[in-house]
Structure formats: structure tokens, C-alpha cells
């Protein structure tokens, strides 16, 4: 089993734990894309398509597959990321830490804005 598939299996376990009702076909595709992104450390679809472990007859069909996946209306940042964000905030609140969120707006494409949140944690201090 390749590195991307190993990463995808780990992502699948986490995704199935926090979102058990998410469609299996969507999960199967998302975990491959996420595994490739972790392995390559880039969001560049052309680079990711080269290492996607897909059973396709032609190599050039991988990038359109990835682009169709990213346009899928069942994939929304809110649905996929909310469980992890809630868990992180719950863990921080149990440790009585202060959370500072910084926000940055980036454009992945003209129609795909990305709002990046960066949490910073520090010991709770009296105001």
C-alpha cells in the first residue's frame, strides 16, 4: 500500500468517526485527495493529480477527476471541518487556555475564497 493510501486510510477513520452519515462515495474520494495533499504538501491540483492512486486508463484523466470532486456541492468546508474545530475548542476550554483566532482571506480561485483561521493558545490570564 502506497503512502497516499496509508494517509487516506487514516483520514477515513477520522472522517467516519466524526461524520458517520457522510456518503461513502464522497468519503472514498475525499480521503484520497486529502492523503495526496498531505503527502505532497501542496493544494496545487496539477501536482496532486500526478500522485493520486486512481485506477484510470489515462494519466491525464486524474486532474479532471480531482476538479469534479472539488466542485461537488456535498463538500462544504462547514460540514467537513466543523467537528474538528469543535473538538479543538472543547479541548482548549477544558485546559482553561485563552484562544486567539487570526483570520486571513485568500483566493484559491475567483469563485473559491478560503478563510483561514489560525488558533493561538496561551495560558489563561486574568483580564
Q: How are the strands of the largest sheet arranged?
A: 1-2
Given as residue ranges, the uncertain stretches (5+ residues, pLDDT < 50) are none
Strand proportion, as a percent range, falls in 15-25%
Query: What do the pLDDT scores average to?
Result: 79
What is the CA-atom radius of gyration, in angstroms?
Answer: 17 Å
Largest sheet: 2 strands, antiparallel
Question: Helix content range of the residues, please?
Answer: 40-55%
Provide the structure class. Answer: alpha+beta
Task: Give me the strand/helix succession.
Answer: HHHHHEE
The shape, in one word, is globular
> What's the total number of strands?
2
Note the total helix count.
5
- Distance from N terminus to C terminus (CA atoms, Å) equals 52 Å
Spell out the key features of this protein:
127 residues, alpha+beta, two-stranded antiparallel sheet, 53% helix, 20% strand, globular
Amino acid at each position: 500500500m502506497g503512502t497516499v493510501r496509508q494517509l487516506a486510510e487514516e483520514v477515513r477513520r477520522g472522517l467516519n468517526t466524526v461524520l458517520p452519515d457522510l456518503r461513502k462515495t464522497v468519503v472514498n474520494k475525499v480521503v484520497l485527495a486529502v492523503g495526496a495533499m498531505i503527502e505532497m504538501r501542496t493544494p496545487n491540483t496539477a501536482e496532486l493529480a500526478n500522485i493520486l492512486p486512481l485506477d484510470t486508463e489515462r494519466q491525464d484523466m486524474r486532474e479532471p477527476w480531482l476538479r469534479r470532486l472539488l466542485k461537488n456541492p456535498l463538500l462544504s468546508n462547514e460540514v467537513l471541518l466543523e467537528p474538528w474545530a469543535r473538538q479543538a475548542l472543547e479541548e482548549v476550554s477544558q485546559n482553561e487556555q485563552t484562544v486567539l483566532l487570526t483570520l486571513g482571506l485568500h483566493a484559491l480561485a475567483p469563485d473559491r475564497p478560503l478563510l483561514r483561521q489560525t488558533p493561538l493558545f496561551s495560558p489563561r490570564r486574568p483580564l
